[in-house]
Amino acid sequence: MINGIIVKGIGGFYYVRTESDIVECRARGVFREEKLTPLVGDKVRIRISAEDNKGYIEEIYPRTSKLLRPPVANITQAIIVMSIKKPDINSWLLDRFLIMAEHENLDIIICINKSDLAPEKALKFKTIYEKIGYKVINTSVVEGKDIDELKELLNDNISVFAGPSGVGKSSLLNEVNENFKLETGDISSKTKRGKHTTRHVELLELHDNAFVLDSPGFSSLNIDFIEEEIDLKDYFKEIYKYGDKCKFISCLHVNEPDCEVKRQVEEGNIHKERYDNYLLFLEEIKKIRRY
């Protein structure tokens, strides 16, 4: 038996990186019976059949994390990439990605890309999210800005690059490692959104013990894993922090009296746009629970 990690899965075949090679494998039927689908990032044990010299996945080791979109396991770190322009940054979407990453207990780095197109605006967003407690870097492939810092942050991690299409995830990865040669795309002049260039989920090996995931871009994420409205505050660091000082334990920070969160919004300690996004997500959760 050989240990390895699944780096790519296409059409029922799984490509497993071992110490010496990448082995094309099939998964055993028992996984279907157990309703367990191998995922990119899974650490597995494989067998090479003497009969056909093919690889078979015999065991999937316990996962430390699991994402649904993109479907990947054992990620340790999320690099949430948003562009400052082309396409314009969307704080609602950024906060949605943050909720997903917080839910998976991943270390989070916010990467504001194409910062050369609007440096002052990029700095504004960096300041807002650093104040909350997130690590933020403002990158530019054109200027080579903060690319070395990004490389350092990827060491000793399995990192997922998440974000909508067109923000420059593949371009950043090509800068991190020139051997990747990932296809990059332009922004659609009609929709002002990125064209999909990454078609499948694949772990790319930077070096020993460091992988990055270039995943297909997407523009919406389901947050139906948040079961109760009161739980949403747990995904907003600053709202959770000040919410403990509200008059009512069950305060949703909407219309309740003596709400410390609303007070902090008025005083500027909680950014108004973040609070507005919180209210939008709260309404979404209410609608989900209604059906």
Q: Care to describe what's here?
A:
By secondary structure, this protein is an alpha/beta fold. The protein has eight helices and 13 strands. The protein has helices spanning 30-33, 91-103, 119-132, 147-154, 169-176, 237-243, 260-267, 272-290; strands at 2-10, 13-17, 22-27, 43-48, 55-60, 66-67, 72-73, 77-83, 107-113, 135-138, 158-162, 202-207, 210-214. The strands form three sheets. The chain has a six-stranded mixed β-sheet with strand order 10-9-8-11-13-12, with helices on both faces. Helix 2 crosses helix 8. It is globular and about 75 Å long. The termini are far apart.
What topology does this entry show?
Elements: E1 2-10, E2 13-17, E3 22-27, H1 30-33, E4 43-48, E5 55-60, E6 66-67, E7 72-73, E8 77-83, H2 91-103, E9 107-113, H3 119-132, E10 135-138, H4 147-154, E11 158-162, H5 169-176, E12 202-207, E13 210-214, H6 237-243, H7 260-267, H8 272-290
Parallel strand pairs: 3-5, 8-9, 8-11, 9-10, 11-13
Antiparallel strand pairs: 1-2, 1-4, 2-3, 4-5, 6-7, 12-13
Label this structure with key terms:
291 residues, alpha/beta, six-stranded mixed sheet, five-stranded mixed barrel
Quick summary:
The protein has about 290 residues and is α/β, with parallel strands linked by helices.
Please count the helical segments. Answer: 8
- Estimated helix fraction: 25-40%
User: H/E order of the elements?
Assistant: EEEHEEEEEHEHEHEHEEHHH
The oligomeric state of the chains shown is: single chain
Mean pLDDT: 88
Poorly predicted sequence stretches spanning 5 or more consecutive residues: 186-198
Distance between the termini: 48 Å
Which overall shape is indicated by the principal axes computed on the Cα atoms? Answer: globular
Instruction: Give a short account of the largest sheet.
Output: 6 strands, mixed
